[in-house]
Write a structure and sequence with these properties.
Elements (H helix, E strand, L loop, with lengths): L7 H26 L2 E2 L11 E2 L2 H16 L4 H23 L3 H17 L10 H22 L5 H20 L2 H21 L8 H16 L11 H11 L1 H16 L12 H7 L4 H22 L4 H23 L17 H11 L2 H24 L6 H24 L11 H26 L6 H19 L1 H8 L9 E6 L3 H12 L5 E8 L8 E2 L2 E5 L4 H8 L3 E4 L6 H14 L2 E5 L3 E3 L4
Parallel strand pairs: 3-4, 3-7, 4-6, 7-8
Antiparallel strand pairs: 1-2, 5-6, 8-9
Helix pairs in contact: 1-2, 1-7, 2-3, 2-7, 2-8, 3-4, 3-8, 4-5, 5-8, 5-10, 6-7, 6-8, 6-12, 9-12, 11-12, 13-15, 15-16, 15-18, 16-17, 17-18
Length: 601
């Protein structure tokens, strides 16, 4: 038995087996006793589903820990605090207690941890560190609770975070803590078997509170959290390990406050819901968030081994990507029967902020400041190698303010801030190139005049310019790239449209239809008279033969409208199309600059 307890994979497997068995038993019990979650307007699930799944996770974790894991005082304290939160959640599942009562229970659990010395040593002041720890534990506990909004999401993300923690324990040689978390991972995966889409059981508040508290408390046990590496690592590593719930909670809280809704109330406006609104299936939305969690977990492990400046640079790049994704997702409409924008009329201050930020110019300038800083830093590193605590680091710090000011000024002069991101094209790339070239030239000239360019490398500024150009293009193309990866949803009940003309005009019409789903069009295919274009694919739609094949195609595809996207269509061809439209009962419209009916007079 002792040999078993030294192998985290075997102990995790035991947790997995117990998780599966306990989930089966709890699901049967919950169904027989009527502990079932019924669909509601503010909830995502569509059918009655068994509750109390957290009971299975809790029993599997506690049982395996008591039997197979060597428990020291801190591990026992963590299990005790987690048990308190499990009981609070269970009472809420059964009796539906008030939020402040749950908060009191969370405070009790956090008090148990800090009373036995489990805290984040950030400031060196015990009182401040205790309150930071309490805020961390309660915040993560509620974040996991809010994240439990789609089949398999909260449990899967928690398992990924726990695996990242376990790897950190293994690297640091913390075997007892590794065994503890391995059991927890196994119990989560055992439950996930039945909770992944389509879920047959939910974990409820007893599960989300236990899981959230156990995760946040486990971070306090590990040196991955940064006990020896300073404030930055202490904050950055655990935040990355639990990145997805933190991001989702922050994102939802900000948007709900902007729309005048309570942050604590249920809703279908989480990150996962917005991904589904963009056209992803529930499974793919959850898997995408799993991917983000894996990347963040890997970054947390890397940051625990990198220098602080390298960690800051890596996190800055990640943060830029997240901000762009967040801005994109915030524009996704998730409530069909409510116009969120209308609520702005009731709050002048919020309306001003939204309208002001809509122009995005301040955001663009701030983003470019970050891009310039990152490009300059990575150029130094790529050309000169490690620069921390060297003369090159002083050169970087001394030149950075000059480089930032002159590059931003050059962007302004070149017209970088005149374009709209969603319409970024090749012509804008030329503008970006001019701006970067001008900014780099001015920076070199300024350093030459101020410091005679002494000790600076010209290669650094060439590499910096290239990196900055790539950063500008990537950030401005972000919305178009996201739309390619996650296209805007098309209404299945929209008018089925056939685009006549598979050239530039037809491609433009397709993009406009997809960019404006409120027009209620569903593009089905292209049709063209050019035999060289037949059977080609444009943005996922096939091109069909227009030489005599239009009537049959309209019948086969149940076409409601044919949109003509050919500017120089002959009058004879147009007359023939009008006759076909009358005979086959579909509308014919011209779709060049705008969609408008064609007169049959």
């Amino acid at each position: 038995m002792l040999e078993l307890t030294t192998n985290p994979l075997i102990v995790g497997g035991i947790g997995l087996l117990l998780g599966i068995l306990m989930t089966l038993a709890v699901r049967r019990f919950a169904t027989d006793r009527g502990f079932v979650a019924k669909p509601k307007s503010d909830r995502w699930h569509k059918r009655p589903t068994a509750m109390l799944g957290g009971l299975a996770i809790y029993i599997a974790t506690i049982t395996a820990c008591l039997l197979f894991v060597p428990l020291d005082t801190k591990a026992i304290v963590l299990l005790a605090g987690s048990s308190v939160l499990f009981v609070v959640g269970l009472v809420d599942d059964i009796l539906n207690i008030r939020p402040y009562q749950k908060l009191i229970g969370q405070l009790i659990g956090a008090a148990i941890l800090v009373s036995f010395g489990l805290k984040m040593p950030i400031t060196g002041n015990d009182l401040i560190d205790i309150w930071i720890t309490v805020f961390w534990v309660i915040g993560i506990t509620n974040a996991i609770n809010l994240l439990d909004n789609m089949d398999g999401l909260a449990v899967g993300i928690s398992a990924i975070a726990a695996i990242a923690l376990a790897i950190g324990f293994a690297v640091n040689g913390q075997i007892d803590e590794l065994m503890l978390v391995a059991v927890f991972v196994g119990a989560l995966l055992g439950f996930l078997v039945f909770n992944f889409n389509p879920a047959s059981i939910f974990m409820g508040d007893c599960g989300s509170m236990f899981v959230g508290f156990f995760l946040s408390g486990s971070v306090l046990l590990t040196e991955t959290g940064g006990r020896s590496r300073g404030v930055f690592a202490i904050l950055a590593v655990p935040a990355l390990i639990l990145f997805v719930p933190i991001f989702d909670t922050t994102f939802v809280t900000i948007l709900r406050k902007l729309w005048g809704r309570k942050a604590s109330q249920g809703g279908r406006d989480h990150t996962s819901h917005r991904l589904v609104a963009l056209g992803l299936s529930e499974r793919n939305a959850v898997l995408m968030l799993y991917g983000f969690a894996i990347v963040a977990g890997a970054m947390s492990l890397a940051i625990s081994r990198l220098e602080v400046t390298q960690s800051l640079a890596l996190i800055s790049v990640f943060s830029v990507i997240l901000v762009i994704v967040g801005v994109y997702l915030s524009k996704v409409r998730v409530y069909e029967n409510a116009d969120e924008a209308a609520s702005l009329n009731t709050n002048t201050t919020v309306g001003f902020l939204i309208n002001f930020s809509y122009k995005r110019r301040i955001f663009e300038v701030l983003l470019d400041i970050v891009l310039v800083s990152l490009a300059h830093y990575f150029a130094f590193v790529l050309v000169l190698g490690q620069i921390e605590n060297t003369e090159n680091w002083e050169l970087y710090i001394k030149s950075l303010p000059i480089v930032i000011v002159l590059n931003i000024g050059a962007f302004l002069i070149a017209g970088v801030y005149r374009g709209l991101w969603r319409y970024t094209s090749v012509s804008d790339f030329i503008t970006f190139t001019k701006g970067v070239a001008l900014g780099s030239a001015l920076s070199i000239l300024a350093l030459l005049l101020l410091y005679r360019f002494e000790s600076y490398s010209r290669t650094v500024f060439v590499v910096s310019a290239l990196l900055l150009l790539f950063g500008l293009i990537g950030s401005r193309m972000a919305f178009r790239l996201i739309r390619q990866a996650i296209p805007l949803p098309m209404h299945a009940e929209g008018r089925r449209a056939l685009i006549y003309g598979a050239g530039d005009g037809g491609e433009m019409v397709l993009r406009e239809l997809r960019n404006n789903p409120t027009w209620n069009y569903l593009p089905v295919a292209f049709i063209d008279d050019d035999p060289l274009k037949i059977d080609k694919i444009i943005h996922g739609l096939r091109v069909y033969d227009g030489n005599g094949g239009l009537p049959n195609l309209c019948t086969e595809k149940e076409i409601d409208e044919v949109l003509i996207a050919i500017r120089d269509l002959s009058s004879d061809k147009l007359r023939r199309l009008k006759e076909i439209s009358r005979e086959n009962n579909f509308e014919l419209k011209r779709a060049l600059i705008k969609i408008e009916p064609i007169s049959f007079d």
